[in-house]
Amino acid sequence: MLPPLGLCRQGEHLVCRLHKSLYGLKQASRNWFAKFTNALQDAGFVQSLADYSLFTRYHDNSFTIILIYVDDIVITGNDPKAIQSLKDFLHARFRIKDLGNLKYFLGIEVARSKKGIFISQRKYALDILDDAGLLGARPYSFPMEQTLRLNPTDGKPLQDPTRYRRLVGRLIYLTVTRPDLSFTVHVLSRFMHEPHQPHLDAALRVLRYLKGSPGQGILFPTTNNLKLKAFCDSDWASCPTTGDLSQVIVLSLVIL
């Protein structure tokens, strides 16, 4: 980093040597995450190779999971004693504030009841509708017309594709709690490189579908059995858009 004003001398090219990271510097977030990672590894946690912000610890029948985003931390597990032990460990290493049960995290709303845990993105969905000016729009029953076939060359290219790309990007994040949008968003994401007007019209239809149920989400029941099911199918009649063989693999987590 450059030295502060007053330390510059004519003919000299001085820089500061950083001994300790300060909040707001470019190195701060990296150094903070490295320090936090070392602390968790000392506590027996293993960093995920798929998501470096996810850490897990298994011991006998007990497991604890911790997720970190900048300086926000989410802790879960099946052993309350292990969770409390982790909190005590973090309190000893860092100055942290326990905010209690998770209610809101990165646009995801969490509600607890006797039936289980319900997650949704209601506020996030309403914000998307508000930005698009469709809060008062007439809702649709389906996110996409069943007979609709979108092609890369349909209609006129958008003069400013930024709006389409931003909208589809927000819809992709919305599929975290809205798996009913997965197929439609998958189709729309094919045209991110050069969107045309029909593609934008199809994306706006998804918003009209959201208007009818912005608070829809996923319920994880208190008592349930989780089963992972996989389906595979091939369409040898070729894809109507690309003319290629279409193969689909679907993985679903079934809550019984």
UniProtKB/TrEMBL annotation:
It comes from the Eukaryota. Residues 3-145 form the Reverse transcriptase Ty1/copia-type domain. InterPro entries: DNA/RNA_pol_sf (IPR043502), RVT_2 (IPR013103). Coiled coil: none annotated. This is RmlC-like cupins superfamily protein. It comes from Prunus dulcis (Almond).
